[in-house]
């Protein structure tokens, strides 16, 4: 029986390519890309003081563009290309049609699709780091930091954990969709960079209220829904495992949000939007290394842990430990990504189900992937303990890598340009840094005063008017 004509292979659709897989992978990549732009652009721009709205959103936009150029220039092949050393691939360009139109190293779709899919993961990692630096980093220093960190830190983590030739991949670490490579890396790197850059202005650090709560919720919503592509694209196929990963992702995120919200209400007396968003993020981060290799009940339990342990470290422990209070982590990236990412990696080592690992890895030695909970049931305790040990080794490696490389990069940049903005720029904000303002109306009845640096508008400057007479202007 012959296939319908639309399913027959041809020059543009070779026999090795699965059209459904390719379509899903491109869709998943686009969803992840939308987590960054517009997702994190909106979230960052609205969660900060209005005087930093433009700068914060622009840091995310710039990073996304810069990563694209670096990724196709050398980053992809350093992360997934031919082996240079046990933790890094050989740098090379990923722009040649012979490479891009051939089959990817994983999955039944072209390498071009894989380059794009991994590109958006690399981009969001750097943007997440930026969340720890909002409200004071010199934009020129950020322009240097993005390509340097991608080159000397991200590629090493990605190759070690995800590339089949990477040493942690060969060891058997389970990181389904980036709990280590993306979230633990960004949390540790962001916290380390925040230490070297220094704190915000004292007034900003004491009071840094969001400028638009509704937009903040919109950005958070884009981040949440985009996670369907984040975790659902990890199997590199439109498969059973992809479906399970998507469902587990939302179950864990919802449970974590509810847990955080309950704790806020019980201990602080009010349910808070900021807390709900943090709970959502910690749930999404925690499930990422496990999404397709744990059962639904385990995903819900992980949500309880991710909504409570990071809550405790952020809301209670943070104020008791001197080294945490000394570092100004603007968006609490350390708690929401480093703590939650580490927690997810450990819980993956406990809850990973061997049969689901087989569906994900599709390798002959799939039985080596076993969570401690199942190892205890099957009288394979030593194998389960080994998996837990491997998960901890992966955490230790990513933490050390990012502390060392991020410190090196910040110290290098500091010899070229200041890491932190000048005091007058910190006092003024967007207008001093970019010559632009995020909002025309601001404050209690004050009308936007035309920026001296903005040549777009040539209108007369307005002055403050009583709040009850705005309709008369």
From TrEMBL:
Q: Supply the Pfam families for this chain.
A: Ammonium_transp
* Keyword Transmembrane belongs to the record: yes
Q: How does it sit in the membrane?
A: Multi-pass membrane protein
Gene Ontology MF terms in the entry: ammonium channel activity
Cellular component (GO) terms are:
plasma membrane
Q: Where are the transmembrane segments?
A: 23-45, 52-74, 115-134, 141-162, 177-197, 209-230, 242-261, 273-291, 297-317, 338-361, 390-413
Family annotation (PANTHER family): AMMONIUM TRANSPORTER 2 MEMBER 4, AMMONIUM TRANSPORTER MEP2
* NCBIfam families xref list: amt
UniProt name for this protein: Ammonium transporter
**Source organism:** Vitis rotundifolia
């Amino acid at each position: 029986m012959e296939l319908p004509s639309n399913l027959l292979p041809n020059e543009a659709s070779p026999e090795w390519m699965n059209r459904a897989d390719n379509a899903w992978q491109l869709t998943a990549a686009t969803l992840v890309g939308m987590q960054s732009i517009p997702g994190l652009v909106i979230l960052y721009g609205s969660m900060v003081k209005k005087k930093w709205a433009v700068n914060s959103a622009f840091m995310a936009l710039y990073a996304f563009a810069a990563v694209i150029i670096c990724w196709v220039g050398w980053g992809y092949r350093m992360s997934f290309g031919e082996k240079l050393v046990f933790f890094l691939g050989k740098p090379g360009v990923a722009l040649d049609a012979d490479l891009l139109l051939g089959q990817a190293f994983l999955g039944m779709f072209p390498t071009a699709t894989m380059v794009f899919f991994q590109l958006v993961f690399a981009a969001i990692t750097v943007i997440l780091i930026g969340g720890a630096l909002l409200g004071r980093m010199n934009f020129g220093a950020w322009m240097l930091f993005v390509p340097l960190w991608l080159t000397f830190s991200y590629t090493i983590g990605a190759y070690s954990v995800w590339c089949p030739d990477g040493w942690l991949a060969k060891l058997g670490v389970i990181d389904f969709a980036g709990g280590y490579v993306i979230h633990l890396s960004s949390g540790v790197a962001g916290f380390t960079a925040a230490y070297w850059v220094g704190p915000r202005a004292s007034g900003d650090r004491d009071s840094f209220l969001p400028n638009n709560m509704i937009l903040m919720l919109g950005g958070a919503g884009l981040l949440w829904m985009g996670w369907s592509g984040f975790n659902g694209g990890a199997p590199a196929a439109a498969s059973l495992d992809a479906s399970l990963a998507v469902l587990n992702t939302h179950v864990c995120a919802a449970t974590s949000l509810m847990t955080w919200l309950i704790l806020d209400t019980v201990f602080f007396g009010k349910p808070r939007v900021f807390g709900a968003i943090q709970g959502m993020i910690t749930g999404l981060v925690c499930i990422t290394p496990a999404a397709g290799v744990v059962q639904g009940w385990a995903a819900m339990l992980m949500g309880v842990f991710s909504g409570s342990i990071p809550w405790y470290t952020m809301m209670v422990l943070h104020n008791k430990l001197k080294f945490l209070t000394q570092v100004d982590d603007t968006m609490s990236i350390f708690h929401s990504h480093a703590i939650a990412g580490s927690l997810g990696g450990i819980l993956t080592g406990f809850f990973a189900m061997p049969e689901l690992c087989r569906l994900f890895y599709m390798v002959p030695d799939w039985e080596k992937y076993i969570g401690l909970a199942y190892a205890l049931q099957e009288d394979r305790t030593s194998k389960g303990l080994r998996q837990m040990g491997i998960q901890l080794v992966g955490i230790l490696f990513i933490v050390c890598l990012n502390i060392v490389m991020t410190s090196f990069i910040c110290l290098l940049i500091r010899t070229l340009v200041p890491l932190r903005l000048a005091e007058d720029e910190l006092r003024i904000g967007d207008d001093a840094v970019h010559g632009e303002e995020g909002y025309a109306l601001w404050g209690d009845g004050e009308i936007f005063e035309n920026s001296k640096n903005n040549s777009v508008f040539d209108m007369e400057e307005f002055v403050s008017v009583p709040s009850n007479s705005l309709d008369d202007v």
